[in-house]
Design goal:
Strand content: 15-25%
Distance between the termini: 32 Å
CATH architecture of the largest domain: 3-Layer(aba) Sandwich
CATH superfamily of the largest domain: P-loop containing nucleotide triphosphate hydrolases
Structural class: alpha/beta
Number of strands: 14
Number of domains: 2
Number of helices: 11
Bound molecules: adenosine-5'-triphosphate
Helix content: 25-40%
Order of helices and strands: EEEHEHEEHHHEHEHEEHEHEEHEH
Largest sheet: 6 strands, mixed
Length: 422
Amino acid sequence: MIEAVGLTKRYGDKTAVHNLSFQVRPGAVTGFLGPNGSGKSTTMRMILGLDNPSAGYVTIGGHPYRKLPNAPRQVGALLDAKAVHGGRAARNHLLSLAQLSGIPARRVDEVLGVVGLQDVAKRRSKGFSLGMGQRLGIAAALLGDPQVLLFDEPVNGLDPEGIHWVRNLMKALAAEGRTVFVSSHLMSEMALTADHLIVIGRGQLLSDMSVTDFISANSADFARVRTPDTEPQLREKLTSALTEAGGHVLPEQDGALRVTGLALPRISDLAHASDVRLWELSPHQASLEEAYMRMTQGAVDYRSTADQKAGLQQPLPPGAQPPMPVPGQGQPGWYAPPPPQQGSQPFAAPQGAPGGAPAGPYGAPSAPGPVPGAPPANPYAAQQAPQAAQAQPPAAAPAPPAAAPAPASAPAADPTKPEDAR
Ligand SMILES: Nc1ncnc2c1ncn2[C@@H]1O[C@H](COP(=O)(O)OP(=O)(O)OP(=O)(O)O)[C@@H](O)[C@H]1O
């Protein structure tokens, strides 16, 4: 088990991680989610003893990483897949790591097979694609057959088949009773892979719960209501009636209304009592992706000036920043999620539940191609530059920081800067 207590990391004026406490248990995949710059890599580096906490502590199996006897046999990590000697053949890279930790050479060939790199084992890794680099990094993490595994963005650069394989690998490792801690930006991917989620924003804990609970606590049911386009006054009339009845009404881009806080039959009755005809009254549920974005919205450091999430958010006064989310209460100013109790919404059953893909043996990297039942891609995934990611078992060498520091002042208001300025 990994346990963090009051973990804090400051770099000068910048607090990268603030008073973070959580546990990562064995036998489950725990997803570690947060926007860019929220402190995921910093937390992982502290877990692996590569950075010292400014306050608090973190242990693995009750010991700080640096005090673990034969740590590479107990903990494996993929932090930055580019942290390899590019001139070395893949097999030789793994062999040198194995020799440093007293791991027999036959294990190198085993892990090459597990990640599907056996045919390119003699090729220099500098010619590897991003996906091959990730696989090599995962091989390095598995080398010591450790009980505890940390993966920082393991699916970065992988094609759908690779993503599917990583998903099944994580699940299989957890099913063997190992502790698997995986960071990602992709809520949709984590919903399929993880059993438990830890969500942070600006270094602070926003959520620590099972995926199932996260879905029921954060996926907001809402109704779409449309009045005749030809009579805009009916829309106004209905908006007033629904608001007076305690509903929360926001305009959709196509002229419909998005209503939360009122059941469908009640909306229908209110429309009838107000003498408003309806062209549409339909149940909907916000996706998990939306729920995650709602939760982390106030904790996003880098945002495009053309914000695709605008439709989810209530208008803010000019120049105002969204407030930080309050743990357990969601994001102020966003569509309010329903209260977490079950059955309070008469419409729309939860969708996007985890476990969409069947678990498979992790020694089969050539998994079937398209991911069945995979949710739509995160619209932000395409905006993010592929991140340098690298693999390296923690004992191999003191790792350089996995991510370069961001500029001291967040470029949120600067349209000349990319969304992820690092
Ligand atoms: N060595 C460092 N010196 C100064 N600031 C740093 C350093 N490392 C990280 N930071 C800052 O700490 C914050 C958290 O960074 P971190 O890399 O941990 O976030 P992250 O959640 O992993 O981000 P991403 O998802 O983009 O990889 C950022 O604002 C970053 O700029």
